[in-house]
Design goal:
Helix content of chain A: over 70%
Oligomer: heterodimer
CATH architecture of the largest domain in chain B: Orthogonal Bundle
Radius of gyration of chain A: 58 Å
Distance between the termini of chain B: 12 Å
Order of helices and strands of chain B: HHHHHHHH
Largest interface: A-B, 44 and 65 residues
CATH topology of the largest domain in chain B: Rna Polymerase Sigma Factor, Chain: A
Number of strands of chain B: 0
Structural class of chain A: mainly alpha
Structural class of chain B: mainly alpha
Strand content of chain B: under 5%
Helix content of chain B: over 70%
Largest sheet of chain A: none
CATH superfamily of the largest domain in chain B: RNA polymerase sigma factor, region 2, helix turn helix motif
């Protein structure tokens, strides 16, 4: 088929009216970039549009316009809960189960718990800063106590010495020789 | 169309008010079913909205683009219906049933231009030989291929091709003048 022959068939090509083999052959030719046939195709599209104009005009019902504008509105402003609507209903929240409830519910668990708590208390009693401070205070108190005992002992010795001296002073003087 | 591409719904509404009667008339004439025609109209204008970049101002006016799109989509729908419903097209009449007067155009001068163009296209079709017009209408309005037309009319394929070619050649020359006059106002 020559380009001249294609001019008259281009309208049918534009509306997919050629037989499949002719349709394919024309498509292959257009893909080569033939400017003359490309122009003919553009004219064919315009002609097809004008032929459509020959149909008597009929007003569509108002519902068509309403549906169209509703789609446009939905396209411009998609509903915010659109995604959530598509999701399945969330299942009711299940009560959270803690593994340790089952574990410490057994006898072995209880025994381990007692040992653990005892160890913690022992550590707190012996190793906390408060306990160490108390021990230091206690050591200091013992030292002061020993010092006090020493002072008391020395005081008793001094009192004893004073009593001895007073006894010697009070004793009658020996007769002169 | 630039405003439609800029997502202006008022522009689409204005285009719909201006051309929906033309689109609906052609859809109804080809589909012969008002509900199907209205679905096609909605789909065609939705395509204008959702794919506005398909329109190339360098290739013609909005009207011819819209009508070309209409024809293509409505033929697709007709072929689909044929497959699913085995729709009989022999009972087709020139005046589709259920037709109602077109809505008045908001722009009277535009309405006059459209009506004048419509009359000239009809005269171009009327100027064809009856045999030529018959095959052209079968090809154009029913989307039949050469072979299908030959089968429908029980005529040799060569004869059908000759008539279609002669008819389309005459139409092409007579519509060329109209095409150059139809521009978007």
């Amino acid at each position: 088929m020559t380009c001249n022959e294609r001019q008259d068939w281009m309208l049918l090509y534009a509306i997919d009216g050629l037989d499949p083999i002719e349709q394919q052959e024309t498509r292959a030719h257009l893909s080569t970039g033939c400017p003359r046939c490309a122009g003919a195709l553009a004219e064919a599209h315009a002609t097809a549009g004008l032929l459509a104009l020959a149909s008597p005009p009929v007003a569509p019902s108002i519902r068509v316009f309403e549906r169209l504008m509703a789609r446009v509105e939905s396209d411009l402003h998609p509903p915010s809960d659109k995604h959530t609507d598509d999701l399945p209903e969330p299942s009711p929240a299940k009560p959270r189960r803690f593994f340790w409830r089952d574990w410490f519910g057994s006898d072995t668990g209880r025994l381990i718990l007692v040992i653990l708590l005892s160890s913690i208390i022992t550590y707190l009693v012996t190793s906390t800063p408060f306990t160490r401070e108390g021990q230091a205070w206690k050591d200091n108190y013992k030292e002061k106590y020993r010092e006090a005992q020493e002072y008391y002992r020395q005081l008793e010795e001094a009192r004893q010495r004073i009593r001895e001296l007073e006894s010697e002073r009070a004793a009658p003087a020996p007769p002169p020789d | 169309m630039q405003r439609i591409a800029a997502r202006d719904p008022k522009a689409l509404a204005a285009l719909y008010q201006r051309y929906s009667s033309c689109v609906m008339g052609h859809c109804l004439r080809i589909l012969n079913d008002r509900a199907e025609a209205e679905e096609a109209v909605e789909q065609i204008f939705w395509e204008l909205w959702s794919k506005p970049d398909r329109y190339d101002p360098q290739r013609g006016a909005v009207l011819t683009f819209l009508l070309t799109l209409t024809h293509s989509r409505v033929l697709d729908r007709l072929r689909s219906l044929r497959r699913t419903r085995a729709l009989s097209l022999d009972a087709r009449s020139d005046d589709a049933p259920g037709s109602s007067p077109a809505a008045p155009d908001a722009d009277p001068s535009h309405a006059v231009m459209l009506d004048e163009a419509r009359q000239r296209v009809r005269r171009s079709l009327d100027a064809l030989e009856p045999d030529q017009r018959k095959v052209v209408e079968l090809a154009f309005l029913e989307g039949l291929s050469h072979s299908e037309i030959a089968q429908r009319l029980s005529q040799p394929l060569g004869t059908v091709k000759t008539r279609i070619r002669a008819g389309l050649s005459r139409l092409r020359h007579s519509l060329r003048a109209i095409y150059s006059e139809v521009n978007e106002p």
